[in-house]
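PROTOCOL LOG
Step 1. Enter all chains and additional molecules of the complex.
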Amino acid sequence: MKPVVREIVAKTVLNRSKLGDYSLNCYGGCTHACVYCYARFMERFHPHEEPWGAFVDVKVNAAEALVKQLRRAEPGGVFMSSACDAYQPIEKEYRLTRACARMLIEYGFEVHVLTKSALVLDDIPMYAESRLARIGVTLTSMDEATARIWEPHASSVAKRVNILKTAKEAGLATSVMFGPLLPGISDSDEAIDALMKTAADLEVDVIWTDTLNPRPKVWPSVRQLVAERYPSLLGSYSAILFSAGKREAYVEGLRGRIEAAAKRYRLGKRLAGCP
Ligand code: SF4
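Step 2. Run joint prediction.
Step 3. Record the structure below.
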């Protein structure tokens, strides 16, 4: 089904952020429609009739709004993006992410991309020329079938791996977010090992990992999918997400297994974030 696209006018697009000095979102909503997407919380502030993943608001004046902000902002790192994927399919039509990234670079800001879309490849030459960029991808699992279930409209795992390879070959720093690791699905020792091996093979510079969190609006969609596809896991998902003691024990065990896998591949120093 085609997503509902709305053109809107934004006052600002650059925000202070814990994920970097700033974050920048040219779009509201994300048609990659990941089941666990934490950006669903935005629905609280900007409700839509359509479900998450079925709409995208296009901030058509993003570049104009940004240039006004850049005249007053201190240069720093800009995370793209925190509440959408900056390279979701609509970017091909509007190229707002490209226009904003170019402007950020001109003003001496560093762009930190985190995406699940091969569309970023079109902008690798721009980023490589600037050297003011780091290109990252999110990988929840190396298994294509699992990724398709949980991230139905994102690029395939193989295409995401190719983004890291291409960015590295272009001389850019790279990063990867392994997460959220899905309990009983993509958090086994073998699955974590496969992710770390990929990071090692591709010489990824920065690695983050994350577990599934009970953020607002996430549980209903996760629960529905787990009930349909993995019914035997429903009880453990509920416990890991909502029972404080069980969650603590789970996260501690997961952290230990992640750190052990990173150590095996001599990635300890590159592991910037653990659950
Ligand atoms: S790509 Fe990111 S922002 Fe888009 S739906 Fe998936 S998790 Fe959410």
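Step 4. Note key features.
Residues 30, 32-34, 37, 39, 84-85, 116, 151, 154 surround iron/sulfur cluster (CB under 6 Å).
Residues 4-273 form a domain with the TIM Barrel fold (CATH 3.20.20.70).
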